[in-house]
Amino acid sequence: MKDSKLTLSVHSGSHGDPQYKGAVTPLYPSSAYDYEGQAILYPRYYNTPNLKAAAVKVAALEHGEAGLMFSSGMSAIVTGLITFLKEGDHVIFQSDLYGGTYYSVITELPRLGISYTIVDASDSQNFAKAIKPETKVIYIETPSNPTLKITDIKAVADIAKAKGIITMIDNTFASPVNQNPINLGIDIVAHSGTKYIGGHSDLCCGFLVTTHALMEKILSKAINWGGSPDANTAWLVERSLKTIVLRVRQQNENALAIANFLKTDSRIGNVFYPGLEDHPNYATAKTQMPGGFGGMLSFEVKNDALAFTNKLKLIKRALSLGGVESTICSPLKTSHSKMTAAERAAIGVSDNLLRFSVGIEEAEDLIDDIKQALG
Ligand SMILES: *Cc1c(COP(=O)(O)O)cnc(C)c1O
């Protein structure tokens, strides 16, 4: 299949400037529009020009019919989930969820009378086994945070389809450049746009992409619950998306080079990257991530992780990910700090594990920085 992502990233959703015929979509900050002779435009109806331009571009890159932009990734995820769940329903999650998603699930769903089961996604049959008559949604996230486990997307989508269950995936780590779950049968794709979609560590937003029919339901809830972004952020995101393919391709290339280097260094313990041939799910990753294996990897340093990150010069210590600049964080101190040591151990998060979001710098410079910090 022809890969037109470079073209879609530049042109889809973007429209020129009708007044001055400028090349780019103008910023329309209005929250008040004339309602005669056109649909009612309003930011919280998610239909103002910049919100729509950004959402159309993400939907095109995900090969989906419709997109919606939210004020954060969590706003997108929670709105998507709760649209299809009510009291008495059941939902299945994979383990190794993004921390924010995990804590939302365990604190909010029981309060609403929605039950859930968390399954080990390394065997997709675990999803089939967890299905109950009242199961309405199956939710996955691959590659997972922080140990880059791979869930077989098509296998899970097939299991759910056979039972009429809606599937949702957090596609943040892969980005729309590397993995398009809708092609594999997934119903709803969620993104934290704060990461690769924004790409410059300077904004916060989220996206959902799905069919027109499901989006109609999501939109009606999203209007009730709020969570729409502002025009400025949408305008910035539309601009950022024009380079997402270039950025992510470079990040894929850098991450693979760095993972290969880390494998050979005796001062490093385990290295987790789905692009390494000895990753347990390499074959699945290769099939379902045709664009590349992504810019996220994690590894264990054998000596003190804090001392190592203190010595890094180019690579910044920071929580977020997906920016053009390389950042590194300790799950122990950040995303997984609320878990007990036993819970962390169960999902392979050791105390000296570091999660590395590889930027677009020269791979050799990043490797040199790691080498000097290990020394
Ligand atoms: C950051 C992140 C989120 C949450 O997104 P926010 O924009 O912080 O609300 C969800 N999933 C993954 C995988 C993330 O990295």
TrEMBL record:
GO CC annotations on file: cytoplasm
Keywords, comma-separated and alphabetical: Pyridoxal phosphate, Transferase
GO terms (BP aspect): transsulfuration
CDD domains named in the record: CGS_like
Keyword Transferase set for record: yes
The keyword Translocase is assigned to this record: no
Cofactor: pyridoxal 5'-phosphate
GO MF: carbon-sulfur lyase activity; pyridoxal phosphate binding; transferase activity
N6-(pyridoxal phosphate)lysine PTM sites in chain numbering: 195
Family (UniProt): Belongs to the trans-sulfuration enzymes family.
PANTHER family in the record: CYSTATHIONINE GAMMA-LYASE, TRANS-SULFURATION ENZYME FAMILY MEMBER
Protein name in the entry: PLP-dependent transferase
